[in-house]
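Final report, section 2: Outcomes. Of the targets proposed, pepsin A is the one most frequently requested by collaborating groups, and we therefore present its record in full.
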Amino acid sequence: MQWAVVLCALVALSECSFKIPLIKGKTARQTLMEKGIWEETRQKYPYRPMAKFIQTGDESMTNDADLSYYGVISIGTPPQSFKVIFDTGSSNLWVPSVNCNSAACQNHAEFNPSESSTFTWANKPVSISYGTGSMTGQLAYDTVSLGGLTVTNQMFGASETEAPFMANMVADGILGLAFPSLAAGGATPVFDNMMSQGLVSQDLFSVYLSGNSAEGSVVSFGEIETNYFNGQITWIPLTSETYWQIQMDSVTINGNVVACSGGCQAIIDTGTSQIVGPDSDISNINNWVGATTDQYGQADVNCNNLPNMPEITFTLNGNAFTIPATAYTSQDYGCHTGFGNGGSSQLWILGDVFIRQFYAIFDRQNNMVGLAAIA
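The predicted structure is given below as C-alpha cells.
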C-alpha cells in the first residue's frame, strides 16, 4: 500500500497530512464530581501512575481520572468506530468486544467480529495490567482505519473483561504509540505497521494538544505540522527505545533546583494527564508553589494566587522548557496543580500538563523527540 507516499510526492505537503482530530472531552474526575461520588471513587480506585511503567511481562497501564483527549478510529469491514486514547506510553491497540460483560464495556462501543469480513482470530489471549484492575481478552487481526490511512492485518485486543474504573472514561479503548518491545502478546503496534506498509512519508508522528478548547487538538502521522508551533524544534535523543524516554537534567523554580537534582530519566507520555515524579520531588515542587496536598495526592492551591505563582523550568538534555502556573494548574471545583506522586520510582512522566505547552514530535527514524513552543 504505497499509494499514500506516492500521492505525497505529487501534491503539496500541506495537502498530504494524515491526521486525526483529538477531542478534549469531560474527564472521569469531572463526571464523578458532578455525580457527587469522586471522593468515594478515588478511595476505591487510587491513582497509581507508575504502574503503567513497571515491567511485569505484560504491558501495564493505570487508571487516570484526568485523561481527556481521544480520537476516533475504525476497525473492520465495514468499519466499526471507536474512541481511543492515543498513548505514547504503551504499545497495544485494544477496544471492548461484544464478548465482554464488564460494566465498563456495557457503556462503550463494542467490536463485533461477526460483522467484519476481514476479521480473523489470532488464537492468543492477552492480559494488560492496570494499577487497579486489568483488561483481559483475545488478540485478533483486522483492518484499522485512522486519519485517512488504512492499516491492514493489524493485531489488536478484543476485551472480555475490563477494570471497573474504565466505566467512567469517555474513551472506549487505547491505541499505543510506544515501541514494539512493550507490546503485550507480541502484537505489532499500529504505527510500526504504518511504517512497514509504506503509509507514511516520514517515520514520525506528532501531537498538538489544545488547552481549554474542546477542539483543535490533533495527532498527525508522517508529518510535522508547522502551523502548530513557533520558533525552532529542539531535538532530544532517546535514552531508551522502549518508551519515549529522554534525559532530564533538573527541575528549577526561580533558579533553584527543586527536583531531579543531578539528573533523571523522563518519559514524554500522551497517555498520562499529569507531570509525575518521585514523591519527595513532587512534594517539594508543590511546597514551592504554595500547594496543600491531601491524603490522595491532590495538591490544592488558592485560585486567587494563580497570578503570583512561579514558572517552572524543566531542563531536558541541556535545553530549558518553562511552563507558567496557568499550564500546571487546573480549575475543577477549586484549583489544583497537575503534579502527581509516582512513589519511590525515580522515573518521571511528562504528561499532558507538559505537552499542552510544546508541540511534540516522535521520530522513529532517528529515535528522537522534538519539542517546540506551541503557536
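The two ends are 34 Å apart (CA to CA).
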